[in-house]
Amino acid sequence: MNRALSIRSSNRSSGTATSSTHSSTGGSHHGSTMTGGRRGFSLSSLRGTIQPELSKRLFKLIKSENNLVAAHETAGRERVSIATQLSEWGEQSGDDGISDVSDKVGVILSEMGEQEDNYAHALDDSRAVLKTIRNTEKSVQPSRDGRAKIADDIARLKAKEPESTRLVVLEQELVRAEAENMVAEAQLTNITRQKLKEAYTAEFLATIERADKQLILARHGLRLLALLDDTPVVPGDVSPHYPHAAQARQILNDAEDDLRDWRMAADGPDDGGDAAATPTSPKASIPPQQQPLSPKSDRGSLSGGQTVG
Amino acid sequence: MNRALSIRSSNRSSGTATSSTHSSTGGSHHGSTMTGGRRGFSLSSLRGTIQPELSKRLFKLIKSENNLVAAHETAGRERVSIATQLSEWGEQSGDDGISDVSDKVGVILSEMGEQEDNYAHALDDSRAVLKTIRNTEKSVQPSRDGRAKIADDIARLKAKEPESTRLVVLEQELVRAEAENMVAEAQLTNITRQKLKEAYTAEFLATIERADKQLILARHGLRLLALLDDTPVVPGDVSPHYPHAAQARQILNDAEDDLRDWRMAADGPDDGGDAAATPTSPKASIPPQQQPLSPKSDRGSLSGGQTVG
């Protein structure tokens, strides 16, 4: 098995930040050298986006996150559409078993689609948090540039006119710029750490919520399908007996109860091996026969609890 | 809470298949009346697709499933791309903690993307199963049409020439057509029940597998993020100490082990309330310090076990 404990293209030189050969992920391949706190700007950094160098990568990443959100939104929408189509296809079959099971499986699939949509929205919220980092990166760039420019000016002047009196002024300016930049870099570090943690913690929690809830739905979906007898019928007996309508409704009730009772497991971050949500006990709920169908709702809304405890 | 135990637009009249007012899910709204085994064909059934009436709905549903597959494929691809971008963004930060955590979170996200892609492929396989039903529907249509046509001819002839000798021949033809159709309908019922069950059982199992594995990954991802100290630093101390590199590698090892040990829970279909996969015990694995980074692999492949027990 191919172990990959890093997904970087280049072997990272840990410790100091003297990287230079990381492959670009699309767009311009700039040759920034971060030696001694100064940055060289290649021509290629002027091409492409108008983003400052520092926030370019995150700018692209946030765009990719947008594509990800859109993909999950589409998946949710298609899932809900398939659910309705499946139910209506089953209805025209004229087979009680297929009609009932396809309708109830449709309810489950529809709710799976809703969960996919919720996931997309959670990813979008996390994306907004990444923007805070990007905006800070953008605002720190002028500070870095200013400091680098003064250092460049000093180096150029030293080479041309080593005795120039302007050097003293420039050295003073550099000290001020370094102080200003030091604050900016600390702000960047703080925002980056806090918001990186916040954004991806939110994504992982959303992943857990979607996984838990879709697990609940898929397991009840399997129970529904198990009600459909698929032993072959002989010609003339085209509409086999289907005695499971009440059971099928009970399964939907169970699914609804399980979703409502779902809570985020409190031990999430520290307990990596246990994939279980709060285990739910069997419900002693009202017999479902009394429940009227809801013909007005055009898609299933087994709206489960959204609580994150 | 709005209970929806059916997702059909119309209130289904259970038992007999005399539905008439189901709303169309896009496309032509045909007014087929399924009374007494005969079908009226409206003009609108000639518009749109060239699919026979019977397989039209499933034809559309299979198209929607294709959109669903594509959406999850896109989500998987974007996720893997984001993983690489995050890792490379973190590298240029010059902050050891951000660099290491973003790289390892990237590995986790990349594997989540792989699981999303596996899910898309499983959905595509299930879609192929639905095609078997559609193809049978298509092949049963001429049998239904033939029988209906003879019955129509008889009715027409009886009205025009009640004494016609052709009536006897037509009645005989009708009996033969009914016998042939009876076999065709039984075949359709059998294929539909078997394949409906097979297709959506596969979808639900794939949903469970993706959910279980993404749960494992998300939980270990949260552990990684917890290693990142986000207490604010003061200006001048821009590269806070990061002592957790070994721990971070161990978390990736744990994730890899958990994925490899994953098995489909055998009690799936009958145990709706328990959202847990086989619980995995804490691993006593080899210290990760000996593991070299794999710079050649350009995306993480924590390839977990695919076994379905």
Automatic annotation (TrEMBL), chains A, B:
InterPro entries per UniProt: AH/BAR_dom_sf, PIL1/LSP1
Q: Which portions of the chain have biased composition (kind: Polar residues)?
A: 281-294
- GO CC term, one of those recorded: plasma membrane
- Composition skew (Low complexity), residue ranges: 9-36
Coiled-coil annotation reads 167-194
Arranged from A to Z, the UniProt key words for this protein are:
Coiled coil, Phosphoprotein
Q: Which GO terms describe its biological process?
A: eisosome assembly; endocytosis
Q: Where is this region: Disordered?
A: 1-43, 261-309
**GO molecular function list:** lipid binding
* PANTHER family with a match to the protein in the record: PRIMARY COMPONENT OF EISOSOMES (EUROFUNG), SPHINGOLIPID LONG CHAIN BASE-RESPONSIVE PROTEIN PIL1
Name it. Answer: Eisosome component PIL1/LSP1
Annotated source species: Lasiosphaeris hirsuta
Species lineage: Eukaryota, Fungi, Dikarya, Ascomycota, Pezizomycotina
